[in-house]
Amino acid sequence: MEGYLDPQDGRRRDQPMSCPHTGYPQWVVLHVPHDSAEVPSSVRGQFLLDEVQMAAELDRMTDHLTMALFSDPESKLQVVRAPVSRLVVDVERFACDGDEPMAARGMGAVYAVTSHQLPLRRPLSVEERERLMREYYFPHHARLEAAFSCAIQSEGYCLLIDCHSFPGSALPYELATPDLTRPDICIGTDPFHTSAEIARAFVMEFERAGWRVGVNDPFAGALVPSSRYRSDRRVGAVMVEVNRRLYLDERTAKPLPVFSKVSGQIKGCCMAAAAACRAPERLE
Ligand SMILES: [Zn+2]
Question: Which residues neighbour 233 within 8 Å (Cβ) at sequence distance 6 or greater?
Answer without folding.
Answer: 283
